[in-house]
Structures are given as structure tokens and as C-alpha cells.
């Protein structure tokens, strides 16, 4: 006789629960998706990327600015570019029509 209890999966506690957890190919209408109200960034500012890139391409800035400031600017630019790439990839994956 098989023992029922913890450590044996959800099906041991609730018969049929394992089958219910399988992905069902759920589709959701895009109009029903809303923005997270707790998301601090409402818009993505591509202007900031251009400003940082321009500043880091400026030899006068690179010569005069402390190394820590240059490193911080490079890190910020890299992070913003990564965020933009992720957002762009997410938009590409959204179904149209």
C-alpha cells in the first residue's frame, strides 16, 4: 500500500491536482493585459542612452573626468542598453493581430 503524505507531490494530497497544473496553452487578449501599477519606470528614455554614449565618446570628458565617474557612466550605459534590448525582445515576442 502506497503511503500518502508530504514529499510525494501535490497529487498525493489532492488527487488530480498534477494534471490540472499542466500548461494548457493559455492565450490572453492583449487588451486584457495591464501595466503593473508598482512598476517605477513608466517610460523608457532612449535620450539618456544617447546622452551617455555621446559623453563617453567625448575625449575631453574621458581625459578630465575621474576614472570612477567614467566607470559609473559606462556601467549605466551598459545597463540601459541591456534594458532596452530586453524591452525590444519582449515587443518582438508579442503576438500581433
- Structure summary, number of beta strands: 0
Q: Outline, from the CA principal axes?
A: elongated
Average pLDDT value? 77
Percentage of residues in DSSP E strands:
under 5%
Helix content: 40-55%
> C-alpha Rg, in Å?
24 Å
Order of helices and strands: HHHHH
Largest sheet: none
Q: Give the termini separation.
A: 54 Å
Computed structural class = mainly alpha
Helix count from the secondary structure assignment: 5
Low-confidence parts lasting 5 or more residues at pLDDT below 50?
Answer: none
Explain what you see.
This protein has a domain at 44-97. The chain has five helices and no strands. The longest helix is centred in the C-terminal third of the chain and has 27 residues, at 67-93. By secondary structure, it is mainly α. The protein has helices spanning 10-13, 17-20, 46-57, 59-64, 67-93. It starts with 9 loop residues before the first helix and ends with a helix. It is elongated and about 70 Å long.
Amino acid at each position: 500500500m502506497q503511503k500518502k503524505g508530504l514529499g510525494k507531490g501535490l497529487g498525493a494530497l489532492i488527487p488530480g491536482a498534477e494534471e490540472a497544473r499542466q500548461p494548457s496553452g493559455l492565450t490572453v487578449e492583449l487588451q486584457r493585459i495591464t501595466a503593473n501599477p508598482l512598476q517605477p519606470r513608466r517610460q523608457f528614455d532612449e535620450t539618456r542612452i544617447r546622452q551617455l554614449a555621446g559623453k563617453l565618446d567625448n575625449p575631453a570628458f574621458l581625459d578630465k573626468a575621474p576614472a570612477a565617474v567614467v566607470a559609473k557612466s559606462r556601467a549605466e550605459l551598459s545597463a540601459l542598453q541591456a534594458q532596452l534590448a530586453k524591452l525590444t525582445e519582449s515587443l518582438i515576442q508579442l503576438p500581433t493581430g
